[in-house]
């Protein structure tokens, strides 16, 4: 069998914590598969190019057969040239006492120029996954600056929240994570998000028959929605390895599909589905068809869920107003 042509991955923030954790998993084939060579384009801030060179030296020392080539730049037009997948991590993480939205002013300016470069020089099939916080609104900014790229190619990472929800349900019910399905993260990747178990199955049974409703509507939601802050408080820095795992889970499921009968969660540019205003980047239940994310349609939204989704959407609207005010969209 002949070796496929290399794919080009552009990773911003490649010398940062998440970048450092993710790159070696890309090199080992966990993201694109064990036979798929990859060209790695690292995009860094000028002051971190030297550190990126060090990471590139380590990648070289890993002698990974799948790494076809590594390039480092602080110029978006060079870094996104010919990109098939852009993973946008490069942004400041929050520290103790901050909400993710507090990062809007400091991080949002990064994403417009990157969107413009993606629009001009990336491959026609480009997919963009945004990690840098606040991830949903940053995704909206990138997309606004890349008008020629189809809207369904942009995603914000909420698979980390999805994984957190699975883990909490597993701990509560005693069921293995792999036997829990149809969990949904709705809304913003923030403390207003709504981790929803109303359609979830635990070992084939409705989740609300297995775990108690009071926990599912209270402590469970708070634990998942505030997990990022809990990790910062405990570790002294925001989550890194679990984020790299969630990035891999997201990309892998888009490329290879989700399990039959299950779905994942991802921030998508709303087309009005589930009453979310068009253009906001909202987390939805998604499946992958022909390597494209599709929003799962037709789920019943009861009054509890409606109120939770609307509260998170209200925050997304506020964030959109803030970036409009900053002249970023
Ligand atoms: P980090 O500080 O270790 O690394 C960030 C890197 O981005 C640095 O190397 C920095 O030089 C680089 N950078 C800054 N400006 C840049 C620019 N204009 N272009 C390219 N690179 C640039 O931070 P980290 O722990 O890797 O986290 C990165 C981001 O991811 C943060 O905003 C964090 O809040 C976010 N995050 C999101 C999720 C999620 O689930 N969506 C999870 C964890 C972290
Ligand atoms: C997370 O969810 O762990 C990240 O978004 C980092 C943060 O600031 O919470």
Describe what you observe in this structure.
This is Malate dehydrogenase. Residues 10-149 form the Lactate/malate dehydrogenase N-terminal domain. The active site is at 189 (proton acceptor). The chain is of the alpha/beta class. The protein has two domains: 7-156, 3-Layer(aba) Sandwich (Rossmann fold); 159-319, Lactate dehydrogenase/glycoside hydrolase, family 4, C-terminal (L-2-Hydroxyisocaproate Dehydrogenase, Chain A, domain 2), CATH 3.90.110. The chain has twelve helices and 14 strands. A hairpin with a 7-residue loop joins β8 (184-186) and β9. α1 crosses α11 (241-256) and α6 runs antiparallel to α9 (219-225). The protein starts with 6 loop residues before the first strand and ends with a helix.
Task: List its traits.
329 residues, alpha/beta, Rossmann fold, L-2-Hydroxyisocaproate Dehydrogenase, Chain A, domain 2, 2 domains, six-stranded parallel β-sheet, three-stranded antiparallel β-sheet, 12 helices, 14 strands, 19% strand, globular, binds nicotinamide-adenine-dinucleotide, binds (2S)-2-hydroxybutanedioic acid
CATH class of the largest domain: Alpha Beta
> How many helical elements?
12
Task: Kindly report the CATH topology of the largest domain.
Answer: L-2-Hydroxyisocaproate Dehydrogenase, Chain A, domain 2
Helix content: 40-55%
Q: How many domains, as an integer?
A: 2
The strand count comes to: 14
Question: Can you tell me the CATH architecture of the largest domain?
Answer: Alpha-Beta Complex
* Physical arrangement of strands within the biggest beta sheet: 3-2-1-4-5-6
Return Rg in Å. Answer: 19 Å
Mean pLDDT: 97
Secondary-structure class = alpha/beta
Shape: globular
Family: Belongs to the LDH/MDH superfamily. MDH type 2 family.
GO molecular function: L-malate dehydrogenase (NAD+) activity
Active site: 189
Function: Catalyzes the reversible oxidation of malate to oxaloacetate.
């Amino acid at each position: 069998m002949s070796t496929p042509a290399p794919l080009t991955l552009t990773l911003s923030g490649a010398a940062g914590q998440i970048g450092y954790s993710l790159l070696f998993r890309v090199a080992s084939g966990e993201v694109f598969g064990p036979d798929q060579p990859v060209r790695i384009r690292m995009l860094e801030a000028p002051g971190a190019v030297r550190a990126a060179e060090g990471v590139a030296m380590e990648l070289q020392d890993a002698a990974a057969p799948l790494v076809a080539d590594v390039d480092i730049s602080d110029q978006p037009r060079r870094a996104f040239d010919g990109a098939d997948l852009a993973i946008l991590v490069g942004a400041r993480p929050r520290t103790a006492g901050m909400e993710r939205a507090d990062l809007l002013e400091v991080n949002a300016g990064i994403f417009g120029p990157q969107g413009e470069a993606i629009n001009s020089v990336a491959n026609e099939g480009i997919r963009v996954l945004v990690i840098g916080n606040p991830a949903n609104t940053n995704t909206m900014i990138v997309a606004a600056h890349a008008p020629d790229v189809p809207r369904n190619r942009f995603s914000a990472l909420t698979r980390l929240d999805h994984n957190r929800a699975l883990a909490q349900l597993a701990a509560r019910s005693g069921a293995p994570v792999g036997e829990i399905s149809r969990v949904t993260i709705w809304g913003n990747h923030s403390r207003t998000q709504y981790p929803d178990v109303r359609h979830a199955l635990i070992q084939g049974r409705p989740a609300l028959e297995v775990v108690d409703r009071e926990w599912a509507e209270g402590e469970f939601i708070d634990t998942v929605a505030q997990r990022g802050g809990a990790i910062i408080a405990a570790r002294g820095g925001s989550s890194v390895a679990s984020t790299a795992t969630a990035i891999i889970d997201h990309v892998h499921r888009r490329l290879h599909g989700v399990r039959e009968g299950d779905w994942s969660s991802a921030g998508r540019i709303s087309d009005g589905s589930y009453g979310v205003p068009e253009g906001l980047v909202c987390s939805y239940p998604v499946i992958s068809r022909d390597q494209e994310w599709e929003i799962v349609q037709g789920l019943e939204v009861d009054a509890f869920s409606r109120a939770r989704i609307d509260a998170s959407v209200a925050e997304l609207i506020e964030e959109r107003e803030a970036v409009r005010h900053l002249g970023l969209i």
